[in-house]
Amino acid sequence: MVRMYTHLKVLSANISINTGTYKVIADGNFISESAGELAYKLIYKNDSIEVISSDKKIGIYKYIKFIAENNPAAELKIKLINPDRKPRVYPQNMIFSTFESTIKIINDVEVDRYVAGVTEAEAGSRSNQEFYKVQAVLARTFALAHINKHVLEGFSLCDQVHCQVYYGKPRDASITTAVEATKGQVVVDDGLNLIIAAFHSNSGGQTANSEDVWGAKTTYLKSVTDSFSVKMPNSNWQRKMLTEDWLTYLRLKHGYPTTDPLARDIALNFKQNERKTYLEASNIKVPLKFVRQDLQLKSTFFSIKPLNNDSVLFMGRGYGHGLGMCQEGAMRMSKQGYSYEQILHFYYKDIQIIDMKKLSFFKDE
Ligand SMILES: [Zn+2]
After folding, report:
1. Mind listing the pLDDT tens digit for each residue in 6-19?
2. How many helices (DSSP H) and strands (DSSP E) are in the chain?
3. Who has greater pLDDT, 308 or 41?
4. How far away, in angstroms, is 330 Cα from ligand 1 center?
5. Could you read off the pLDDT of 93-151 as tens digits, one per residue?
6. Pairing with 336, which of 27, 102, 127, 184 sits 20 to 30 Å away (CA)?
7. At what angle do helices 261-268 and 243-254 cross, to 10 degrees?
8. CA of 152 to the centre of ligand 1 (A)
9. C-alpha dist (Å) from residue 113 to 116, 134, 175, 283, 302
10. Looking at the predicted structure, is the pLDDT value of residue 362 above 60?
């Protein structure tokens, strides 16, 4: 149960059948059984939904279900009218109800159909099979670990970054193939717990430890040297800043002793050959994760040098929090012939890739 368009106030939408036959049930009443061209318009009205088909008003309901009939390929096309959005195709069942002055749209979809949509949203649509497999296993692991994230709101996951981005059926059919090839597979730690499936764009040559980023230690989010991520699009970044602004930030936000010549020198010539967690001087520790957040830097993995009299240059490596799988590194590994299992074992330590059915078996014991 995934809620669609979670971030939008949906007031009207067109629903049409893309593939298969659908039964339409509204407030428990059978409305129609249709295939092919038949389209419905749904309009929000006073905490209910008006249903129109072929310019004819069918009725006003609270709860409308489109149920796919015995066809795994069944798909609906949804075109939002207000607000206006491009059409999207969603597999399997759809449920429409109202919530806080909007039409609430839920895709009742099997895990792997959902995983295929997430894989495309996260991995893009021009990659290769092994990389898709990596993203698919991680998307499935995340979905299972968070299946109750929105349970109090009546669904499992939302379609936004808060859970995982999901736009429905992937356009690239090879993604579906990759998902099927990893059917049911999830990543667990040495205690058979689903891992926190963290990943990021580029590690800059070294991934991070979870305790240095989130404060919590894990057995699998461990720093690794990652030569696969260098010389990729997001390997390096630079940012110029006024020296005065940098020092003022450190002083006001972190109580950093910028008048102390030694501390000032450390701040203006900060070096990271390996990832550090803090910028430190005279017992003051400035967490780099806050520096990244406050200054909106691409990563915490940066060095600084004075550029001229009044400015400094931040020379950064990588993009993202640095935890777990590095997407650009994994993409290169997959092109060099590493399997998705090898890639997952490289970026996550002491893990196992297992069938999720086995997981519930062990957990029940
Ligand atoms: Zn969510």
Report:
1. 999 999 999 999 99
2. 10, 22
3. 41
4. 26
5. 999 999 999 999 999 999 999 999 999 999 987 789 999 999 999 999 999 999 989 99
6. 184
7. 120
8. 12
9. 5, 16, 10, 52, 40
10. no
Of 229, 237, 231, whose CA–CA distance to 327 is shortest? 229
How much is the mean pLDDT over the chain? 94
CA of 150 to the centre of ligand 1 (A): 7
Say if residue 271's pLDDT is above 90. yes
Q: For residue 283, how many other CB atoms are within 10 A of its CB? A: 6
Is the model's pLDDT at 364 over the cut of 60? no
C-alpha to C-alpha distance for 200 and 264, rounded to whole angstroms: 32
CA of 175 to the centre of ligand 1 (A): 23
C-alpha 26 – ligand 1 centre gap (Å) = 27
CA of 184 to the centre of ligand 1 (A): 22
Q: How far, in Å, is the centroid of ligand 1 from the Cα of 324?
A: 21
pLDDT of residue 282: 82
The Cα–Cα gap between 109 and 89 comes to 12
Q: Which two tokens stand for residue 358?
A: 């086995």
Structural domains of the chain in order of their starting residue, each with its CATH number: 1-109 (2.60.200), 236-317 (no CATH)
- Cα angle 275, 277, 283; round to 5: 130
Distance 3 CA to ligand 1 centre (A): 9
Long-range contacts (CB closer than 8 Å, 24 or more residues apart) made by 145-151: 145/194, 145/195, 145/196, 145/197, 150/3
When pLDDT is averaged across residues 173-181 and rounded to a whole number, the result is 94
Pairing of strands 93-99, 64-68: antiparallel
CA distance 140 to 170: 15
Closest by alpha carbon to 115, among 68, 76, 166, 71?
166
How many angstroms separate the Cα of 233 from the Cα of each of 46, 125, 154, 303, 327? 50, 17, 41, 19, 11
Residue 18 makes CB contacts below 8 A (sequence gap 6+) with 75, 76, 77, 89
CA 177 to chain CA centroid, nearest Å: 20
Q: Hey, CA dihedral for 25, 30, 36, 37, is it positive or negative?
A: negative
